[in-house]
Write the structure tokens for this entry.
Amino acid sequence: MPSVIIVGTQWGDEGKGKVVDHCAQDASYVVRYQGGANAGHTIVVNGKSLRLQLIPSGVLTGKRVLIGAGVVIDPKILIDEIDRLESLGVRANLLISGKAHITLPYHHLLDSSLEQSRSRKIGTTKRGIGPTYTDKTSRHGLQMTELAAGNFEEKVKRNIDVANKMLRHIIEVDDQVNLDEVVQTYTKYASRLKEYVGDVSTAISSALENGERVLFEGAQGTMLDIDHGTYPFVTSSSASAGGACTGAGIGPTMIDSVMGVCKAYTTRVGEGPFPTELHDETGDRLRDAGGEYGAVTGRPRRCGWLDLNIIRYAKRINGLTSLAITKLDVLTGFDKVRVGVSYRLGNQIIRDTPVHDLENCVPIYVDLDGWSDLFDSDGLCTNAEAYVGMIERETGLPVSYISYGPERDEMICRRSVWS
Ligand code: IMP
Ligand code: MG
């Protein structure tokens, strides 16, 4: 199978970075297709952890890494990442779509001040993501080609004027953005990034024609998708598999399979409904054992049991063909592990995810026996196998990978995504 999408099935932070890093070892290209520096993908190699926000997680495997048109780019963060990789001896083999939009300083300001003014907070990462996508859809955005070309100042002036007026007169805050500073800094960014800008769509299409393997790496997760997530508590991009086509510039017929990454329990960072959330010491225990603190913002993540209604929903929205289970080790040591298998909604029992009624859905759980050692002499212990088996049965999806720790080799592969 030469082209595979890897997508988050929950609210992000499923451990996609590690799964992508693993699968990228047998690919030629890894492509980011949406989101921006709100994503934080952590990869651990030889005990050292590396956090990436924009460069695809496959970069450490030395593969060609592509950033598609659907991504919004904060040039400062991208340059910092390129530099950090260079200091580790990794030269990013990077191509950035000229169509990708740029995050500017006023986007950060608008993101924080709009969030502040909301009575119902979203809990954004304050990385300017929403306002960058707003400029894009309102057709005032600046693309990478414009950063790299000469007429940047003229274009950015209008946007900064509007943003400053909005900050002062509508949102009523004192912060203002200085045009000269932006032009100066972004001109430097342009000279640094120019060499990487090109045509991502054509590059992918030629790679696929040559029979090379291409991996599409989703950021965030299905439940944060702008259209299909728990709106308005979502991010501003198409985080589900459909976003890979528009965000990378390829047709749906060029995709062979879609693997969903599913953490063995559920987390969410930011506001919004979360049916299986635990507000007790079990939730704290999952947070501690799983190190559930935001990679970008450091915020403690909300934690709860696995919710299979959501995974079934992700199966439908993304057309999933398999699953990768991550962080199974975190459940080690619990006497009982609970799994949400359906919801009670009013007087009905449902097995789907009604995103607009999610706060009224009460999970119905099945309790399984826990385990004190994940492995016995035959491999995964019987109770952990039963847990994985339950996920397969309830979702109708085969589990291809099981990750049981942060290190690269802590991974069971039952069937390669490439087979
Ligand atoms: P934004 O993407 O910064 O606008 O944030 C919108 C919502 O998506 C907030 O609830 C964030 O916490 C959440 N979010 C954005 N990126 C990620 C991510 O990479 N992992 C988990 N949650 C995220
Ligand atoms: Mg993350």
Summary: Residues 152-170 form the longest helix (19 residues). The CA atoms of residues 44 and 407 lie 5 Å apart. The chain has two domains: 3-92+199-413, 101-195. The mean pLDDT is 95.
